[in-house]
Write a structure and sequence with these properties.
Radius of gyration: 16 Å
Number of domains: 1
Number of strands: 0
Shape: elongated
Protein name: DUF1761 domain-containing protein
Structural class: mainly alpha
Keywords: Membrane, Transmembrane, Transmembrane helix
Strand content: under 5%
Largest sheet: none
Mean pLDDT: 96
Length: about 140
Amino acid sequence: MMNQLANLNWVSVLLAFVVYFLLGALWFTLFFSRPYKISLGRENETLPNKPIFIVGPALCSLVITLATAVLLYALDISGWGDAVAFALLIGIGFLVANTVNIAINPNIPRPILYGVISGSYHLTGILIVSMILTAMK
């Protein structure tokens, strides 16, 4: 499967990564800032803005985008319907489920709200990533 790295359209991987990362920046700081803070029990605070909170999500988005590209190429997904089905399977089966699982711990005061906000971001992101990668394949 890793032999697919040589076949990837790296411009599409870069574009999909940038869109996914920027979506996250907008999702958590503009679109859902207040509910996100509430889910963390920090609704009256300014969340920290240290480099790890920017670089960490960027690296994770890059890894997710790259893994998605490898799988799309290895599975020879080229149609829109298959790309959406793939994104829903990966998005719900791995990203949303894992996000909700991580949220269910004593450090997240509103785990379901956190899971909905973060999980829906990842589901939307993987849909967009899959569409970009498929369109530029």
